Design the sequence.
């Protein structure tokens, strides 16, 4: 057939290749050709010598998993032990977990897909911060929804709570409901985590909006395992929303267990009302069956066991702490180099990335590529994946960045 578009029921979007993976591929090609390259594009934790960081305890558990059981189908909604342990890991062993139901998903992306497809009607939009992970838009557009944003930061580079509240009110006015996606703590792409005051402001805005119309809040926890104690401070203010909103938590094992390819995650729904929980659980189970049927059984068995067994969990957490230390060393080097060159950026409190505001992210990133330094352009900033940048390369990266910002 000479025209493949005649077969397709939808248009192929321009630039259909994921821009992050495309930049990573270009960086790898130039490095393979012998060029000295700093590749700060891909969101995977890499050792300074270029090896992918993998937790030995997880590898060992994968090898020891019961083969016949793992080879069989997982339950449609997910393995019960895995779902229980993922819920406790995300919410703690308290009232939030007691008001939760969950389904297994192929990574955090699967959880987000379920949220967008089942809590918004076609033609409606989700609301998130101006700086956001690009696939939010891909998922929304592919599902016949859209993305609206609010300013992430105010003039002090603090979370712009006023902008959030105003945008949430507009969403209610325009479509009679709201789906908010917040990638805090350890925000991708900025590394920002909300403090207690900022979380309270979010909760206040959600409760106010929830008096007028249905509101669902998604907490995307993709990088929370790398955020320390602050990564759990969201639980109390989020619990205070439950009288006016449903809260969804997108949980993933990809980063916390260094198993990006296993595609193991969960969508955890928290609602005060038991009837609402039952309806959500039934809907999500049907949605799983109609989308991917069931998820990686081996990954669920292994992650569930690592979380449930106190000894194995302690070993995994100890190994993860070593990776947090690796990441923190790079962040410290970045902060020092940025301060020395007058490069201003939001505070970093965990996660894989930092972002530096600029007038034109695409132009800044292009100028840096001329130096052999690859970062990801986003709206009004560039995203720097410190997770994949050796500490010895940080100074060169910031030097190129400072020059590109001039």
Sequence:
């Amino acid at each position: 057939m000479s025209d493949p578009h005649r077969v397709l029921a939808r248009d192929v979007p321009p630039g259909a290749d994921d821009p992050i993976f495309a930049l990573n591929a270009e960086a790898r090609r130039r490095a393979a050709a012998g060029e000295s390259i700093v590749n700060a594009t891909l969101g995977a934790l890499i050792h300074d010598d270029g090896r992918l960081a993998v937790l030995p305890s997880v590898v060992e558990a994968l090898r020891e998993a019961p083969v016949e059981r793992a080879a069989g189908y997982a339950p449609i909604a997910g393995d019960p032990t895995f779902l229980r342990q993922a819920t406790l890991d995300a919410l703690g062993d308290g009232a939030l977990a007691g008001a939760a139901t969950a389904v297994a998903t192929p990574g955090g992306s699967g959880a987000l897909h379920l949220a967008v497809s089942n809590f918004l009607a076609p033609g409606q939009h989700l609301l998130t911060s101006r700086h956001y992970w690009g696939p939010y838009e891909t998922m929304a557009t592919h599902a016949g929804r859209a993305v609206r944003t609010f300013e992430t930061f105010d003039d002090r580079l603090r979370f712009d709570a006023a902008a959030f509240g105003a945008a949430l009110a507009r969403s209610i006015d325009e479509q009679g409901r709201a789906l908010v996606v917040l990638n805090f703590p350890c925000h991708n792409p900025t590394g920002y985590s909300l403090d207690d005051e900022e979380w309270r402001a979010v909760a206040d805005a959600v409760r106010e909006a929830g008096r007028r119309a249905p509101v669902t809040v998604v907490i995307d926890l993709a990088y929370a395992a790398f955020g320390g104690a602050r990564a759990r401070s969201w639980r109390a203010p989020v619990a205070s929303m439950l009288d006016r909103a449903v809260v969804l938590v997108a949980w993933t094992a990809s980063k916390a267990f260094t198993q990006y390819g296993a595609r193991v995650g969960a969508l955890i729904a928290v609602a005060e009302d038991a009837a609402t929980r039952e309806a959500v659980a039934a809907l999500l189970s049907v949605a799983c069956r109609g989308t991917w049927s069931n998820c990686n059984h081996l990954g669920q068995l292994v992650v569930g066991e690592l979380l449930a067994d106190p000894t194995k969990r302690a070993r995994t957490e100890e190994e993860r702490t070593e990776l947090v230390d690796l990441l923190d060393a790079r962040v410290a080097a970045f902060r020092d180099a940025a301060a020395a060159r007058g490069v201003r950026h939001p505070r970093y409190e965990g996660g894989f990335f930092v972002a530096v505001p600029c007038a034109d992210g695409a132009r800044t990133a292009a100028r840096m590529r001329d130096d052999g330094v690859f970062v990801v352009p986003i709206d009004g900033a560039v995203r720097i994946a410190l997770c994949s940048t050796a500490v010895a390369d940080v100074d060169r990266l910031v030097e190129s960045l400072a020059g590109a910002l001039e």
User: Anything to note?
Assistant: The longest helix spans residues 310-340.
